[in-house]
Amino acid sequence: MKNQQSTQLFERAKTYFPGGVNSPVRAFRSVGGTPVFIERGKGSRIWDADGNEYIDYCGSWGPLILGHANEKVLNAVEKTMRNGTSFGAPTRLENELAELIISNNPYIEKIRFVSSGTEAVMSAIRLARGYTGRTKILKFEGCYHGHSDSLLVKAGSGLVTFGETSSAGVPLSFVNETIVVSLNNKSAVEQAFEQFKNQIACVIIEPIPANNGLLIQDKSYLQFLRDICTANKTLLLFDEVINGFRIGFTGAAGYYQIKPDIITYGKIIGGGFPVGAYAASKDIMSCISPDGNVYQAGTLSGNPVAMSAGIAQLTECLKPNFYQDLEQKTQLLIKGLSQNTKHHFKIFSVGSIFWLAFTDKDKIQSAEDILPDSMNHFKTLYHHLLENGVYIGPSGYEVGFMSEAHTKDDIDKTIKAFEIAFKSL
User: Do 148 and 258 belong to one domain?
Assistant: First the structure.
């Protein structure tokens, strides 16, 4: 595997950016070696600066559900860009994407577009506080909700990778408003509600935690959260930035048939362009400015280019059997990988999301269930996969994603690459 160009680019990048990157996990600190600088992508494949070709299961961390450079998305974007790229004013495209989402999702009534998943969650938390008049929030260890101050308290993935549990620069006053408990622990949640009675504005959870491993929760646990929130007049916030539109058009809310009070979405609703959204009932969303007194704004909110890409992509997601086909391909990959390894290795999956774990456990439902030493095995596996043309996220805590563009030939080659890698482990 050639890496001269990536190495040179990384050395230059380190003179411009902290750690040589604009997002920490890209620095390859958790797997070692030099980051791969990507030049282009098409369908299921990406190519780096040295010309190496990979079958990609990262997909820009999930939103490229149709694959790279999908023609329908590109055509929609090109047409829109010729009319202008940003106006800071309303456009017809905002209406069209909102109607497409709301008319096919019975769990929400109104939506507000923003520019990222972090911004969506940050705004949703403010909305919950404004609606309830309460200040505290409850989150779970092992769930990641972006890098806003009140949520960088024992956060997942990137911080776990670096062996930290919070970020410097977050005031203690913010931390004191955030209650953190373990996932899949009902008694801890009950104790939190007893200790902070009538103070908790919302419980925020990734209903399918997918940024610190794939910590699939039982439906009964999510229903317990719904019930205890209702009983305490606390809002239940589903952070579906990763899993939204991945396991079905109605996401985890539809998958589990549990109605949260607020839902957040990420870049998948913009075809991979910078976009996010939060959505809820008309009553709750009426608190948002200019209708209400909860302020949130953004020049690029509802950006026409992102809206057109989202319309094109989500229209494809509504095709008959779209999600069934994705899940079948995911299961085909998992079956092939599972049959060809005798290592202490499991693959957990839901829909088109999967996670590689070095473990003997049949269930991993909390961050505490992940053995830190298992990440040493992942490091070795990761570089063998790169050498054999398979690209996944450079952290053992991250999940992988199947796209519509992946073919059976891609899956067969991936299974073969894993066989070779496991022989070398």
Answer: yes
